[in-house]
Amino acid sequence: MQRLSRIENYGFIGNMRTAAIIDVDGSIDWLCLPRFDSDACCAKLVGEPENGYWKLWPTEEVISQTRHYRGETLVLETVVETASGSASIIDFMPLSRDADSIIDVVRIVEGHKGTVEMQMHAIFRFGYGHVAPGYIDAKGITAVSGPDSLRLETTVDLETNEDDIRGTFTIEAGERVPFVLTWYRSFCTEPSTRDAEQALKDTEQWWQEWSAHCDVSDEFREPVIRSLITLKALTHIETGGMVGAATTSLPEKTGGQLNWDYRYTWLRDVTFTLYALLSSGYRDEACAWREWLLRSVAGDPAKLQPVYGLAGERRLYEHRLDWLTGFNDSRPVRVGNRAYLQRQLDIYGEVMDGLHFSRVHHIEPNEDIWKVQCQLIDFLEKHWREKA
Questions:
Q1: What pTM value is reported for the model?
Q2: Cβ atoms of 102 and 96 closer than 8 Å
Q3: Which of 262, 297, 314, 326 could form a disulfide with 331 if both were Cys (CB 3.0 to 4.6 A apart)?
Q4: Which of 368, 251, 240, 230 is nearest to 309 (CA)?
Q5: Terminal Cα-to-Cα distance of the chain (whole angstroms)
Q6: What are phi and psi of 56, to 5 degrees?
Q7: What positions does the domain GH15-like occupy (predicted)?
Q8: Looking at residue 335, which CATH number applies to its domain?
Q9: CA distance 232 to 229
């Protein structure tokens, strides 16, 4: 078993379609592409190194390190110092170029002082760390497996074999070395190379402009805006559905079996998120949530579920990934969530409360909204005494 991990050591980046989870040692240990609920190609978080990761880190001992988000953005910067110098690793995910068909993860190494020898090591395993890809060494190195292609491009010389991709380089003060990982469908035309520096500028600008709309006092702004940015990043930009988490099977208790897949949309969680967003001045997100709700719960109110897929999918079949050892050996690792079969009466009240809260903030209901509310109340009036 690998070293014990601590959840609080992980950083989070995302593009409102999916997310990457980055350990304190510069290793992307969880990455699902192209959506939050897609199969992971880096699954070390809930398995072993051979289940996939992508690491950038100095080859020599790190004397000190700090980590922060760059301003009010979701751009994560890790500053490391060695005996020979210091450098930064800048991690982010630009907004997608073409819906869910092209996703980029960008990492930029910047030298600050002296020289630092860095190593890049990547093991990509599709199907939640189960399927080894084939590698094509042309225009960067591309890992291919079935419908998935992952192209890794950089100015650094890379080597590959049947198992992994490696590269070692030296960064000096003032230098910047980009790494761009691009996912695309293997049966589609290969996308153009993304300009890492321009992507960084665009990504920082987008998040800064979004954060500027936050209506909260300066006294509490820093923790509030960081929370809001995270909630925004967990909300799918097209469907409006918000995942409870970007991960699956992080245990409630280390070594226990209460390990669930939270990459779905819980009505309860989304309602509480709506309160936070509307209270902070974000009306567009509230409108998107309301439209998602209408699409998802329309129809028979008896069929209201506590949890749905990102686009309102209803059947979230649950199964176990027995080849994964779990976070700190906490088995099983699950995909899907049987909670969709449960009846939880409180969600009727939370849906009603969320819609009421929207009206209080001057998001007026339409005829469809009133129809859904009336259906829910009529059903609840007749059935609230029944056992779940």
A1: 0.95
A2: yes
A3: 326
A4: 240
A5: 41
A6: -125, 120
A7: 222-387
A8: 1.50.10.10
A9: 5
